[in-house]
Design brief:
single chain; mainly alpha; 4 helices
Amino acid sequence: MFKWLTDLKRTGQLGNILVRKTLLDDCSGERYEELLLALSTTVLRDRIENGFFKDVVQGTYGACRD
């Protein structure tokens, strides 16, 4: 997981968030919460850009389809 997060950091997808192994070992603290927020924001941004929520916005999410 650390390698994956550092790859995201290297490509600029996590912004200026600090990524260290100790953050993942401790799983607590303000920096850990910032990392989780940056990661969830990255995932959400990717989903929006790729049209994942298009059905929700159009009101057809979960509707029966023939």
